What we know:
The protein is an alpha/beta fold. Helix content is about 45%, strand content about 15%. The protein is elongated, with a radius of gyration of 23 Å.
Amino acid sequence: MTDTAKPRIEEVARVAGVSKSTVSRVINGEQYVSARARNAVHEAIAQLGYSPNQAARSLAGNRANAIALVVSEQGSRVLSDPFFASVLRGVHAELTGRRIQLLLMMSQPADNIDLVAYLSGGHVDGALLVSLHGADPLVAMLTGIRLPVVACGRPLGGSVPFVDADNFNGGLEAGRHLVSLGRRRVATIAGPRDMAVGMDRLSGWRRAMSEARLADDLVQEADFTPESGARAMASLLEREPELDAVFVAADIMALGALQVLHARGLRVPSDVAIVGFDDSVLASTATPPLTTVRQDVEQLGRTMTWRLLAELAGEPDLPPSLLLPTSLVHRASA
């Protein structure tokens, strides 16, 4: 739809096969609407890119004075991973003193229609998207309703502004460090291939192996949980019992890898050196303390919030993407 042909409530009602009053009740969150009708209205809103109150608010010069932080993960995952807590601290710090409310929303693809219907209802002025997987349709759905969004990490699907750490060079530096220690059978526990962060860190490690003319065949994918890190480490040891170093693409996965190495009587770093990624609180408290690639996750949260607020304020010539530096933190594991 062009700006001159924005969908109206009548069109939503027609596509959903319900009355205008039913559409209005769904938008306003009222009771006494059947599940079938509610789902039909949400689907029609997403299909048409209907934004109920956005135009009226813009004409009146009003704002919701709220933004949403949308995390595409299950709630239990968000609450247990220190990465998300650090992002939230950064977002909160940037909002301090601005009189802007923050809505924390956790969603799965099955929730997208309800999520978009809510975000299109004038409750927020923009959204921060965290932990996008693959070609998540949420990006296109939100841009379709013309809601300003900024992603945390390079999105694989859709073209929206994003802020990310320099994951490629972080993986490259980790691989180079392990090679500099004289390690020659270097493995990696990579992040998921449906996230740019996993792909970019893996590419950096591969580049380091190529520079050193070492094999890059010892790759095992995991999903940023301790359990997946443990499974990946066990799998790598089965394939190559003589491996002597591992780059793990997240500290939280490195915890699981360390547990497996300890259980098998392998000493870190004398038998197997390990480098993680994040420099979360988990790194300094691990046994032994973890050498890791530091990314400033709080700064990541602050920067993406600044970028969204700058767009909402109409600042010109904003960069479409921002890449924050990484650095290697030396501890006892490598």
